[in-house]
Structure formats: C-alpha cells, structure tokens
Amino acid sequence: MRIPLVVAALALAPLLLIAQQQLTAAQAIARIQQAIPQKPPADTVDTIKGGDPTTIVTGVVTCFTDTMDVLRRAVALHANLIVTHEPTFYNHRDEKTLFVNDPVYKEKAAYIHEHHLVVWRFHDEWHRRVPEPMTEAFTAAVGWQKYQHPDDPFFFTLPPTTVNQLAQDLQQKLHARILRVVGDPNLRVTGVAYRPGASGEAMQIPALERDDVQVLVAGEASEWETVMYAQDAQQQHRPKALILLGHSTSETDGMETAATWLRTIFPTLPVQYVNSGEPYWLPGHPPAQP
C-alpha cells in the first residue's frame, strides 16, 4: 500500500524539525558565515572565545558584549550560543596572558565552562555586511533615513539645528544615560558624519575635515586623538564639533538587528537579543540595580 506523499511529509515533519534543531555550535556558526557574502580578513577576531564547538545549540543570544549579566541572562533563557560583537576577555584579540591568575577572568571563564556556554565573536563579518548593520540600525533608531546621503550612508544632511539640540535629541532617541560633547553648543549644524564603535582617528578625523560636515557622531575616541583635534578646531573658531555616544550605545541597536537577522537563519531555534547596558553613570545619578 502506497503512503500518500502529504501523509509521509507530515509524518517526517517532526523528525525534520528535530534534525534542524540538532545543530552544534560549530555548525551554527558556519551557517551564519555562509549567509554573509563578504568574507572576514585572514586575521579575523571572529573566533570561539570559550566553550566546546561540538555543543548542541539550545538557543542563541546576541549582545554588544557578553558581560557577566548577559551570560547569566542567557542561562536563564536556556540559550547556550552567545554571539557577542565585542571581546569577552578585555582586549581586542581576547589574549589571556594578562589574566591567567586574575580572579575576574577566572570566574568568567569558569562560568562559561560550568554552564556549557559557547561564546563566538561576531565582529569583522557583521561590519562587512552590506548595508553596514551598525550604521543601518543607528539611522533607523534616530529616524535619519531621509537625511542619509544616497552615495555614502555614513553622512547625513539634517534640518538646521545646534550641537546642543542634536546631542539632546540623540540622547533621547538612543535612551543613553551619558553622551560626551566637544565643541560650541550653539554651533549651527546641518552636516553630520557617523562612525560607529571605536573606528579610530584614521576614519574619524577625515570625516570631520570635510567642508560639508560640522559634527562627527561616533562611538568612542582616544582623548589625545580625535577629541583633542575637535577641541583644537573649536579653539581655532572652526565650525566643528564631536559627539561621543559611547561604544555600547553606538552599536547596541546593530546587535539587536543581528538577532532579527539570525531568526531568519535559525527559524526553529529561539534567538534573543540581550542588552549589555551602558557601563557609565553620572555622580548623583546611579543606575537602577537589576
């Protein structure tokens, strides 16, 4: 007796679902990498930072950086593949030589091991994706899509405003506790450049040099580099200013976007974004305790 194809398909569906769910961390990471045409550099930092790559994935958490609170929340969510944008162990390449006997490092590494977590960094490949996800997410969060230059998504022409008004608007829309501003608060602004994360002076200063840019909005900058450049420009009475959002604030929306994108790759796995939170607070205004 022949089994109708529809009946056979229905009978196989639960088995196919189980098969899709039984992904190891290594297989899941490979699937993510295959979905991005732009390949990482040869010396990429996008590697596993902790855990066993043969671990079966029960759920995925994306984050800006995998703080202790993020790891604890992932465990509470029964997710064991942590996709972090920034380092786990306090330096760009997660070199552990400085921390072999450090109690903070040892406790974090032990927590990852004891809870069978796998931590994978998703930095180089995510930034290389087109359109660049951090800038795309920032633009949507602040509502600047219609002001974005069509030929260069890192530049915007806004309705006239001031540096102070612009900083206040960004703080409100990005729900940021702290922004840092260099420059004349009353400077009139229309041209804005954006550089997420810690892009460095080689990308930041050329953007600020442009005649059509009055303000650079960036994640973070070394104080003896772009910050001092902006300060000197102000003291020379040039129409230039700098707004630093904080590295986390500038890229957290991009990692929430990563969770949305990963759900299309893992439709049968729970994928959730966990906010790492801002590390800084103002004296007299401590953050609420979780």
Structural notes for this entry:
The structure is a single chain. This protein starts with a helix and ends in a 17-residue tail after the last strand. 39% of the residues lie in helices and 17% in strands. The longest helix has 19 residues, at 247-265. It is globular and about 60 Å long. Strands 5-6-8-9-10-7 form a six-stranded mixed beta sheet, with helices on both faces. Strands 1-4-3-2-11 form a five-stranded mixed beta sheet, with helices on both faces. The protein has 290 residues and is α/β, with parallel strands linked by helices.
Uncertain segments: 1-20
Order of helices and strands: HHEEHEHEHHEEHEEHEHEHE
- Please summarize the sheet with the most strands: 6 strands, mixed
Number of strands: 11
SS element count, helices: 10
Distance between the termini: 62 Å
Q: Report the mean per-residue pLDDT as an integer.
A: 93
- Helix percent reads 25-40%
Radius of gyration from CA coordinates: 22 Å
Shape: globular
Give the spatial strand order of the biggest sheet: 5-6-8-9-10-7
Helix/sheet category: alpha/beta
Percentage of residues in DSSP E strands: 15-25%
